[in-house]
Here is the input.
Amino acid sequence: MEAKKSFGDAIVSQELNKEAWKKLSREFKWTEELLRKYRSEIDWKELSDNSNLKLSYALLDKFADKWDWERIINRWHDE
Here is the structure.
């Protein structure tokens, strides 16, 4: 019974962690250094919509394989 509780706690913790990273990705004012450091935790789909992130061609190129390009294009189209 204890193993099931631990497994359930782990799932809840994992889901809360995912939601926290989604919110950070969507709202936080990221720097290139932090993007490099946390690249595997960041939700890049949400980050692509983050208006606090100042985009540049160099930044887009550096993480080209991570961006949600449809969101990036829509974001630039809206500005």
